[in-house]
Amino acid sequence: MKDTKLTGQLKNSLHWPLIYTCIWAALIVILFPLAGVKAGFVGLGFFAIQLIMSMFLLKKSEPQLLGAMITFANRYGKVQEKLLQDFKIPYALLDKKGNFLWMNEEFIRISGRERSYHRHISTIFENVQQTDLPLDEEQAEYSVTSESKTYRMIMQRVETADLLVTEEMPLSLTEEEDFFIAVTLFDETELVGMRKEREEDQMVVGYLTLDNYDEVLEGVEDVRKSLLVALVERKINKYFASVDAVVKKLNHDRYFFFMRKKSLDELEKNKFALLDEVKTVSIGNEMAMTISAGIGLGGDSFLSNSDAARVAMDLALGRGGDQVVVKDGYRTRFYGGKTESAEKITRVKARVKAQALKEILTGKNRVVIMGHKISDIDSIGAAIGLYRAAQSIGKPASIVADDVAESVRPVIDGFRDKKGADPEMFVDRRRAKELTNADTALIIVDTNRASYTACKELLHLTTSIVVFDHHRQGVDRIDNAVLSYIEPYASSACEMVAEVLQYFDESLRLKSNEADAMYAGIVVDTNGFITRTGVRTFEAAAYLRRSGADITRVRKMFRDEPEDLRARAKAIADAELFQNEYAISICPSEGTSQPTVVAAQAANELLNVKNVKASFVLTSYNDQIYISARAIDEVNVQLIMERLGGGGHLNIAGAQLQEYTIDEAVELLKNTIIEMHNDGDL
Questions:
Q1: Residue 566 CB neighbour total at 10 angstroms
Q2: Is 294 exposed, middle or buried (0-12, 13-18, 19+ CB in 10 A)?
Q3: Which ranges of 505-534 does DSSP label H, i.e. alpha helix?
Q4: How far is residue 591's CA from residue 566's CA, in Å, rounded to a whole number?
Q5: What does the pLDDT read at residue 34?
Q6: 169-175 — which CB contacts under 8 Å span 24+ positions?
Q7: Which of 5, 651, 662, 583 is nearest to 320 (CA)?
Q8: pLDDT at 167 over 70
Q9: How large is the average pLDDT for residues 276-297?
């Protein structure tokens, strides 16, 4: 007690008697001249007596007062401690390392641990690790679970100087511990449950269409057509009724449906089994009925979800049908699409697109055409065909061709060296940007992905964009095209352009070298008319042959260099048979003029090996890893490549990987195949 000193407001309160004494002394000094010396000495006597008594009482009562105050503070601290101990909100203290130092009764009850438990917090809450502790910040907040309950955890720094350490709440204090971490838990189980229920009750909108309705009914007897449609419709209604969804038929081959998100989750778990169930409907029809659906959710309103469903529906059809596309805000999920899309015999669509293209080009001053990065002969051949279309109606046109495969350069040089050649038939990216403006029609061939185009900047220089492509659409598609002609069943972009040219203008006549380039595009993409060929493929080839295409010239055009032949042979010889079904190999790029083309050729050759369902050949080129994937009919390599950020067709696909070594890319490919096998996606 002797060393205890008063401070603050209490010190001021106890010193007031001394202040009053000083005031009395001043009054006595005034009494001497006003009331006389006698009265002044009397007042001085009383003043002395009061001063002595005040000092005596202050000296005597100060220790007793301090003792009483300390006793009160100790009792008050114990009350606070008792309240904290019995507090119904879980509370605990951690050291810097995340180990428990102390926890109240409620925290003990929730954690199921003893009071002496001093292990790391991650032993109770697994998702809270050392890096999650607020070591460099004042507070951190997380969501944790314990015994099927969800808590909001708030961890806050508490300076050591602010802690009161008593026998009832012992802490192992060290000189290094300048702060601790206070942990508070708030039970949000009911709130989380309500949020989950609200999310599950969100309305989901969808559209469904019968892809090949007309084609299937053409091969069915008239008396059975209505029965086939009724059976398919019954499958659809029964399937959606099982998840409490409402379906409304809009016309003969189109449906509208809506459901809760909870129901959608159930459908996604079984990967939309309706896709396969509809194909089982057979009453003598040679072709199985297939469906496509687009589903939208995650929007701000029911109307925005409906718009998202329409976009998803267009994307599903653009990818060849027989699949479901779910558009959840900015995320897109794909289901199905394992079968090859059926070729449509009718050319009505090609004729309509040809007339629409002519109207667009007629209203513009110039045409710029570009393909994908490292343009191949299919891309360049299609561009040459559209160049001729623009020339036939008197529109100047240019093709972006400074990033092309080595095998294509002789074709381009042949056009440039020809007498009377257009000097701006082929231009580089810089010149293409100068030529493109609001009065320019930009045509994109052999790709529908903005990031894959030869010069992405051109997409922002004009609003008149036309897309011709035979690849299935992905998320990174070109959305602002005024005309989009995407047919996944087509063998090549050259086949599509050859069909359009026949309906574009009566005066259009292809030159022999132009027909050669387009014919070569079809030959290369079909691997010599072996893969992805249909009736319309041969009809397009016949049109090009009539226009002067020569098979011998085309064959000479793509003879291999000796180095390329050796690289392809090495890739085939070194191939690994992964899981006894997939041929995986690495194609050397050193010394080869076109490693990506050689890799694709090797992938085609590996399909000739018995028991190989799909082949993958990887090569390094321009600081990227290129993967060429091929299959015959048992595996959809497009789905595998999409997992790796690429795309393509069911049996011809590819991907480009950045920031990977060749060995890391092989390991990633193998892990992807294993994962998709386990998930049933192959």
A1: 15
A2: buried
A3: 512-525
A4: 10
A5: 66
A6: 169/81, 169/85, 169/102, 170/102, 171/93, 171/101, 171/102, 172/95, 172/101
A7: 651
A8: no
A9: 87
Specify the pLDDT at position 39: 67
Query: What is the mean pLDDT of the segment spanning 109-129?
Result: 81
Q: Is the pTM of this model over 0.85?
A: no
Mean pLDDT value across the chain: 82
Tokens 């090797």 identify what position? 602
Quote the pLDDT of residue 168: 47
In angstroms, the CA 193 to CA 257 distance is: 27
Per DSSP, 355 falls in state H
* Cα 443 to Cα 464: distance, rounded to the nearest angstrom: 8
- Rounded to an integer, what distance in angstroms lies between the CA atom of residue 275 and that of residue 282? 14
- For the segment 23-46, the average pLDDT, to the nearest whole number, is 68
HEC profile of 401-454: CCCECHHHHHHHHHHHCCCCCCCCCEECHHHHHHHCCCCEEEEEECCCEHHHEC
Indicate the DSSP class of residue 287.
S
- Tokens, residue 259: 């459901």
Give the per-residue pLDDT at 85.
61
If we measure between CA atoms, which residue out of 641, 621, 620 comes closest to residue 629?
641
**DSSP SS3 for 232:** helix
Q: Is the pLDDT of residue 560 over 80?
A: no
CB-side neighbour CA atoms (13 Å) of 71 = 6
* Alpha helix stretches (DSSP H) within 36-95: 37-85
374: left (phi over 0), alpha (psi -120 to 50) or beta: left
243 near 267, Cβ under 8 Å? yes
With a cut of 60, say whether residue 177 has pLDDT above it: no
Short-list 566, 525, 558, CA closest to 654: 525
**Tokens, residue 577:** 């048979």
Rounded Cα distance between 25 and 47, Å, is: 7
**Buried b or exposed e, range 520-532, using 16+ CB within 10 angstroms:** bbbbbbbbeeebb
**For the chain, what's the residue count?**
682
Neighbours of 67 (CB within 10 A): 12
pLDDT above 70 for 595: yes
Contact 586, 570 (CB under 8 A): no
What one-character-per-residue DSSP string does 259-287 give? Answer: EEHHHHHHHHHTT-THHHHHHT--SS-SS
Q: Which two tokens stand for residue 45?
A: 């006597």
Secondary structure of the chain: what % helix, strand, coil (to 5)? 45, 20, 35
Which of 244, 279, 268 is CA-nearest to residue 326? 268
What the block records as the tokens of 412 is 């381009």
Check whether 270 has a pLDDT greater than 90: no
Cβ atoms 151, 144 nearer than 8 A: yes
DSSP secondary structure string for all residues of 166-209: -SSS-----TT--EEEEEEEEE-HHHHHHHHHHHHTSEEEEEEE
* Closest to 649 measured CA to CA, from 638, 640, 641: 638
pLDDT at 336: 81
Q: Distance (Å, rounded) from C-alpha 426 to C-alpha 423?
A: 7
pLDDT at 578 over 50: yes
Longest alpha-carbon distance in the chain = 146
Strand, coil or helix: what is 212?
Answer: coil
Check residue 284 and give left, alpha or beta (phi > 0: left; psi -120 to 50: alpha).
left
